[in-house]
Amino acid sequence: MIDHGHDLASVHAATERLLIAVGKLDNASVTQPSRLPGWTRGHVLAHLARNADALVNVLEGRPMYVSGEARDADIERDAPRPLDVHLADLRESAARFQEAGAAPADWSRTVELRNGVTDSASRVPFRRWVEVELHHVDLGTGYELEDLPADFTEREIAFLADRFAGHRDVPSTRLTDGTRAWSTGREADDGPGVTVTGSPADLLGWLAGRRSGAALTVDGGALPALPPL
């Protein structure tokens, strides 16, 4: 069972960590490159604010974004803003998301995200938690994958493993950190599989496209090439 209340509280805590870190930046550092190709830190911050509002739209039954082009244009528009404007926008948009999440609702209902993707409303707070945590890492301010809450890392590995499960371009793959294990890719009877072993942070980094996988150990073949998220 997904505990959306727990996840809303976790989003709040993650957002507070993010705001503290961003508050230590200055206007010049906001314009510097993030770890995401082609995006400055300002792009990441603008995306985080607009994503909060987009997920409010989802919870309230509206399209997540007017269009992909409008989403991209909003990020480009907001990226160059001064630090204090970014901080205010992050706080205010986060508060709107928390308010929408606190409203009485049927959390078992199906909602629509981008590109026709659907999910249970109960998973929307976790999706927001993912955005805040991973993009905090993307800012390159000292918060690393190793700093993520352990329960978050485990859930996100499971979520991404499930996302690639059955994908015809991903061989049958067993992921393990030496204690826990997850399966992804094609069914095992579709051919020999591989076992990928590493720390939770390195497994998550590879699955989420944040690390190359060079720190992982692979048995039974080469490290699978994962499709883009």
TrEMBL record:
One GO MF term: maleylpyruvate isomerase activity
Keyword list, A-Z: Isomerase
One Pfam family of this chain: MDMPI_N
Enzyme class, UniProt record, top EC level: isomerase
Domain annotation Mycothiol-dependent maleylpyruvate isomerase metal-binding: ranges: 11-139
EC number: 5.2.1.4
Superkingdom: Bacteria
Positions of the MDMPI C-terminal domain: 147-227
NCBIfam families per record: maleylpyruvate isomerase family mycothiol-dependent enzyme
Protein name per its UniProtKB record: Maleylpyruvate isomerase
Higher taxonomy: Bacteria, Bacillati, Actinomycetota, Actinomycetes, Kitasatosporales
